[in-house]
Specification:
With 183 residues, this protein is mainly α. The protein has seven helices and no strands. The longest helix is centred in the middle third of the chain and has 29 residues. Bound molecules: 2-acetamido-2-deoxy-beta-D-glucopyranose (4 copies). Belongs to the PMEI family.
């Protein structure tokens, strides 16, 4: 099963590259695609760290956007486990408790988005909303759980969580464009 999935992903990657080579200017394609989203700057910043962003077509870029969002979720959960491990929040019981929940929330958000890459590969754009909504709900549960915490470390967590949410919005913008235009 894993081999089949890997093969699928590879063949899609190769097809995407070939399609975009025929079309020429790849830098501007990333710009054009990101302009279809509500936060073009974040979109370009988040996607351009992947070399494939220079060659992928719209479909491939939507897949990269999912990877960027998944990577943000993974980063947040490891940021949180770092805070918990270094014991720097031990004196703040409320914050510590909500962080344990948040760590779970973002691990789950990562899992959702990781599975979403397969949905995108299969161009099942109508189903994307569901997966992103679950990931967004995970994020909201973390925010809600930490609502009363007043730790200054919360500021950084909230900023990262908001960026994650924006990346999810970018994914949805792209996939609804792809679905609407039957691409
Ligand atoms: C490719 O895009 C860049 C940046 O938008 C632009 O300056 C350049 O002229 C484009 N090249 C072609 C061949 O269209
Ligand atoms: C995740 O963290 C790694 C290492 O710190 C960094 O290179 C990467 O840009 C981060 N990704 C996101 C989406 O924040
Ligand atoms: C936050 O505080 C309010 C008021 O004290 C309380 O009703 C609520 O349950 C608290 N929320 C959490 C997540 O601890
Ligand atoms: C893009 O996403 C944002 C945030 O989720 C949303 O408010 C906006 O309506 C979307 N725009 C399009 C064109 O889908």
């Amino acid at each position: 099963m894993a081999t089949i999935l890997l093969f699928l992903r590879l063949s899609i990657a190769i097809r995407s590259t070939a399609a975009s080579d025929a079309n020429g200017n790849s830098t501007s394609r990333l710009d054009e695609v990101c302009k279809q989203t509500f936060d073009a700057d974040l979109c370009i910043k988040a996607l351009s760290i992947y070399p494939e962003s220079q060659t992928f077509d719209f479909h491939g870029l939507a897949g990269l956007a999912v990877r960027a969002a998944a990577s943000a979720a993974a980063n947040i959960s490891s940021y949180i486990s770092g805070l918990l491990e270094e014991g720097s929040v031990e004196d703040d019981e409320d914050f510590q408790q909500c962080l344990y929940d948040c760590e779970e929330n973002f691990v789950d958000a990562f899992d959702q988005l990781d599975e979403l890459t397969v949905v995108i590969d299969n161009k099942e754009y109508e189903d994307v909303n569901l997966w992103v909504t679950v990931a967004e709900t995970d994020r909201r549960m973390c925010d809600e759980g930490c609502k009363n915490a007043s730790s200054e470390k919360k500021v950084k967590l909230v900023a990262r969580s908001e960026e994650f949410s924006r990346l999810c919005g970018i994914v949805l913008n792209m996939t609804s464009f792809l679905a609407t235009n039957h691409l």
